[in-house]
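Data deposition worksheet. Section B asks for the primary sequence of the deposited chain exactly as it was used as input, without tags or linkers unless they were present during the calculation. Section C holds the resulting structure in token form. Section D is free text for depositor observations; keep each observation to a single sentence. Incomplete worksheets are returned to the depositor.
Section A, Depositor: J.P.
Section B:
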Amino acid sequence: MNEYYPTPSHLVKEMYHKINKVQRYLTILEPSAGKGHIVKEVQKLSESRNGCKTMTIDAIEVETEFQHILRGENIKVIHDDFLTFETFKSYDCIMMNPPFSCGDKHLMKAIEIQQRRGGQVICILNAETIRNPHSFLRKKIIRTLEEYKAEIDFIEDGFVDAERKTGVEVALISVTFPEIIKTDTSLILDKMKKAEKYEDLVKDYASLISGDPVMGIIDSYEYEIKVGVEFIEEYFRISPVLLSGDEIQNKECFILLSVGKENGRPAFEDDRATTINKFIKRTRHKYWKTIFNLKAITEIVTTDAYYDINSKIEKFSEYDVTLFNIRQLQQQLYQSLSGNIEAGIESFFDDVTTKAYDGKNTLYYDAWKTNKAWKIGKKAIIWLNAYDSWSGQFDPDYKADQKVIEMEKVLSYLSKGKKTVADSGIRQKLRDARDGGQTKNIEFEYFNLTFYKKGTCHIEFTNEKAIELLNIFVAKKRNWLPPAYGKKEYYNLTPDEKEAINNFQGEKNYERCRKDSEVQNVLKDNGFLRLSA
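Section C:
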């Protein structure tokens, strides 16, 4: 952070006016975003000039603290260290104010990225890097800038009025690399000439896949992107010879390349970069969906949590499938799951108590600083119809399956910290019960269920510890128990605290729970959600 010098708005405006404007959305990369001064100023300038957003901006930032700030501003952070960044995406422009001490390395990295397929680099650099090219790298940069006729403006006192002031002279560099469409070689034609067999391609593909599920997905993603991008590149290489029409102005390619559909119709693009980026986004969507549906995730999430994380797939389609982004997903996912799981636990508790069929077997007690509170006993009756409305036969449908799965998962979270019984196993038990004509005392891990035609389900809990944990978790979360619950020995509690605990479970059970590691885990904030296990 010692080299963090936010770019003042007047310099960003100069950078913005150097962008090569085109008649389509621009894709921009900011590889040393800091707190987002360049990104936000460019967005503001774009909106004021065009009346709407005409560009998408990806940001890279190495400082974790700044990453959080950027995300809080709804700025998309796609990687941490620009010098290790690799992507298949095409950017119209890389706009940057890199750290002065290693600005030459950052500029060279940006140049290499844009040289591959074409694009612009606009960079604020310590002027000394250009005026005194004493190293091999700096000399290479100067040669490249001269070769591509870069514009270089030297600016004195550019940071005198900045958030962090410095009198260092800077150079504002703008260089454009032409779009590269190779016509001298063809991956597809080469493979045809060599007559390579399809089986060989499959073998090559299989060799890329490692044993680790996540790394295997990353390998597959990178391979598919490489093949797809190369195919698109090949299309634009050979399209000049696939023309029809007698006169030049009427000639058009008679083979059209579509990436997906829009409004049910093939979506064709005229330019290479847009076609490639659209393909990359759709491929990202497919692989993020694969990650979101890994068994390790689907078996631990509640139904609400599952739909919540799947709703985020479109958002993640803006990010490459890399280890960095998967780690970011994990952090967000665990935070989201914790909230959804806690909501699922409380919802199950309410179903068995306040929303139960007739309130039978629900236990009441005087809670801490409140009127009445509830807890679950050994038996309960809930609304859960498992009979077919047409035939009148016992035939649990998908909704009934999901409800039982939710009940099992909630109790498994509390007692084990994660799901251990597959959804398919629970569904199979219900199918076996249906096929065997069994509607009473269907055994599951934490309870036995009996279904009745009037649409009710009788629950007999067989795991008393799981129910105790459930009661403690909800009571603590809803402040029905004293804040000191589980922390103080009983004899150190105040009279009011003792009264609440006596009503809830009594001194003997309290002391047992106070020494119980599972209970203490439940009392911790999200402690029982050992999702990384």
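Section D:
The longest helix spans residues 323-352.
The chain has 20 helices and 17 strands.
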